[in-house]
Amino acid sequence: MKTISRQNKTSKIIFLTIIGLVVFYLFAVPWRNFVFEKNLSDGKSLLRERKYTEAYVKFEKAAILNPFSKEPDDLLALAKNAAADILSMRDFLRQEQQNDLLSLIDGADSKACNLEADRTLIEKNLAQIALVNLKFCTTDGPKNYDSWLFLGIANQKLSEDSYIFKELKPGYRQAALAAYEAAYKVDPINKSAPTYLVALYKVNGDQQQVDHWQNLLDNLGKIEKL
Q1: pTM for this structure?
Q2: Which of 12, 139, 154, 197 could form a disulfide with 127 if both were Cys (CB 3.0 to 4.6 A apart)?
Q3: What's the pLDDT score for residue 156?
Q4: How far is the C-alpha of 184 from the C-alpha of 187, rounded, in Å?
């Protein structure tokens, strides 16, 4: 009798365990899918706001929750690519029906240099869009002092953007330095470019270049007093 009682007890435990697992599975799978979709949705919203690093984290979480879905991997790659070149987001923005941002990007890529528009974009924290037009301005466009200077400012803004991946920031700083130096060659009397160069070389920790450009600035100050 004791043996039968033990067997019944064991059977009940097994039965309850199975029921528990089934219930857990029925609740866990829908919840997992909900969290997966929520991370994708939140990541896309952040990507539309150009918050690339935060979007990347959301897509990483989605990829862990559903390793069989290709969408998180595609979005992870898009976040990386878009941080380096916002033009990569065009197809995504069309799918998301983000016409305002898309029109700004298309306008910047219209192959017509518009420095006033670029200045406004930079002031509105849209330096990455301004950069599209400024690259055109300094390759096929006028290549004047302001176009080089604004190209430097746009790159510098991106190097300071907390949502840009760390590994991209040195490249943006280097591009800013090159643009400021090009501006200086166009107009060696204008103090704006050397002022930016001093500040940016301080960020890079290059004291030799800081001293070089500071010396130029000091000499320009002396010329103004003559």
Answers
A1: 0.83
A2: 154
A3: 97
A4: 5
